[in-house]
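Help! Submission page says 'invalid entity' but I think these are all valid:
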Amino acid sequence: MSTIERREALRETLIEVAEKAIANGGLAQLKARDLAREAGCALGAIYTVFPDLDALTLAVNARTLNRIDGAMRAGGRPDRAPMDAKRAIARLVELATAYLDFAIAQTGLWRALFEHRLPAGQTVPDDYLAQQMALFRHIVAPLEALQPGLSERARLMLARSLFSAVHGVVDLGLEEKLTAVPLPELRRLVVLLATAMGRGLLQVEPEAARGRSRRH
Amino acid sequence: MSTIERREALRETLIEVAEKAIANGGLAQLKARDLAREAGCALGAIYTVFPDLDALTLAVNARTLNRIDGAMRAGGRPDRAPMDAKRAIARLVELATAYLDFAIAQTGLWRALFEHRLPAGQTVPDDYLAQQMALFRHIVAPLEALQPGLSERARLMLARSLFSAVHGVVDLGLEEKLTAVPLPELRRLVVLLATAMGRGLLQVEPEAARGRSRRH
């Protein structure tokens, strides 16, 4: 292997080892010494491929975003024709439950997405932000069917907002201190929320939401 | 003044001075030296009443939560009779717009609520958490009218989730980098979201959300 290939191989190994550590024990379990031992490299070798553990965590989180994207994509039939309203509501429910199911199956990885904070002054790379945005895009498609009158920008904001709503319920439901929510109840609540949002958005005329001062 | 009274007076002055600094310049503007000058006290005197600037920030944020609580309470008529569905939907819209209006009027204080992070290992005091919870309680009341079949716990989770949804739109709308959303459009979007959630929740039978396997 060339030096470049070796570095690339070590990078991949470290991401896999770190992913396993985060999946099993959460971010708090991520220790350079353990990672080096698991990866079979010297401690210092980690820093030849990642500037610090934050960069490694960001690489794991990017992979997690990809996995969630895959899970959300999975249920989506590539409808050629525009979605009708019924399908759009069903799609919102699919997306919300796909997200819940991922969070249940991969709680450690999922939680690391929200727990990880870059040190002050560092900003999240653009391609990571683009991956986050890809998740919201899944929600934009059904919103087009439910609220065709909205601007693209408003639809994207609404998509992020619905994501926040579902994320909020999932987050509370899986919170360690509050283990009192049985998973079937949590799933029902997520379905209720997604269904209600879909039906409600279909019902509200965009004009109604524009207030009484504007009439066409 | 007794020593206790003097300490209490200094504490109040520091909170007011810090509140003004955060309101005008955000958390980044909070500097002990400036605070001491504004409060007319020695630099070291700050630390006789607050262990550190994080504790002072938390005191300002607690006051901000109280202000938001007041704004959300304001529109609420103390309905003796249980709310009907129409009033419940209107109430959700009132709460969402009260929150938006506060965030617009006091962007610095509002942003500090979400930007401030305690140092690792420190946890938020219980009474601060109780104040956060009070905001969600405003949303629980209309949810009782819209989804009477839900458990109290599920209703509280839903209330927090709706709060997240509205907060998400407000947050994006007021984000500094994306100044492109005109306020009237943002207000329409918040009204649309709250109306849709209200109407949707009213429409969805809790049983429907429980899936087809359970019928009465």
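Support: the input was valid. A stray whitespace character was the problem, and the output above is from the cleaned input. Chain B has a mean pLDDT of 87.
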